[in-house]
Amino acid sequence: MSGTITDVPGLLVGHAEDTDALTGCTVIVLEKPAVCGVDVRGSAPGTRETDLLDPVNMVDSVHAICLSGGSAYGLDAASGVMEYLEEKGMGLDVGFGIVPIVPAAVLFDLSVGNPRVRPSREMGYRAASQASSEQVPEGNVGAGTGASVGKLNGFSQAMKSGIGSSSRKLPNGLVIGAVVAVNAVGHVKDPETGEILAGPRNEAGAIVDSIELMQKHAFSLTPPGTNTTIGVVASNAVITKAEAKKIAQMAHNGLAQTIWPIHTMFDGDTLFALGTGQVAASVDLIGTLSAEVLAEAVVRAVRAAKPAGGLPAHESISK
């Protein structure tokens, strides 16, 4: 067990990034098509192919998922993932060729690094081609390269975040994993201790509680749509498309345990849920554990982040 989402059999993860411009993307490639659902809770999302995942619609499985920086520009990275999968013969057979199904979600990282450089088709292709079953690198990589949190006191007083992953295996063989790029307007706390790990800072550089700033500024320092936490929870369970959506809904509880505030008008929080179809398990069990594993991944994303773009990280504040 690597302790990351690649412990779920059949899942491969690849990162690609521009460490100078501070942006990147993360691709989850399925060795075989997997059932997928999605739940969007934030009010400023940037997504692709999420309507397809509605349980009433026809296609019930996907070939990859793309998580990207770059705001809406970053959705272009999914086209590169499609190109790679087509070359590998992975996609939905439509009679005249194949169409890879690649849902995507983006986060806003234009405030960190070079806003003129965004994840491109080439970057998506590169991330997909590098996807492997090895332990997922965390921190300032992939979609977490330009991620930040704690922007309620202005971008200059924010902190660096990143991408994190976690997993859990049960005695019956059920494996649940999560990967998440944490880019919230609010602060991130450890759900076990209540400690604020990263968040908005005051003029002295100390972390302050987001609620206090909300009452003081009423979000006036943060433009809408400039945040968003995006991620994937996955298991090797046998589930339907409707059950996948329910699991995605329940998994959002993991964000609520660790990020405050969450699901605001300033975030576009989006979670995908995958089931690869090997183990029988109840939806309630999968959803509950998905929330716990996702919460662990959020904490790991913040703890693994390194200072970048003029922003300090947890490791530098906590020392």
Automatic annotation (TrEMBL):
Transmembrane segments: none
Cited InterPro entries: ArgJ-like_dom_sf, Peptidase_S58_DmpA
Gene3D superfamilies attached to this UniProt entry: L-amino peptidase D-ALA esterase/amidase (3.60.70.12)
A Pfam family matched in the record: Peptidase_S58
Domain of life: Bacteria
Homology family: Belongs to the peptidase S58 family.
The name this protein goes by in its record: P1 family peptidase
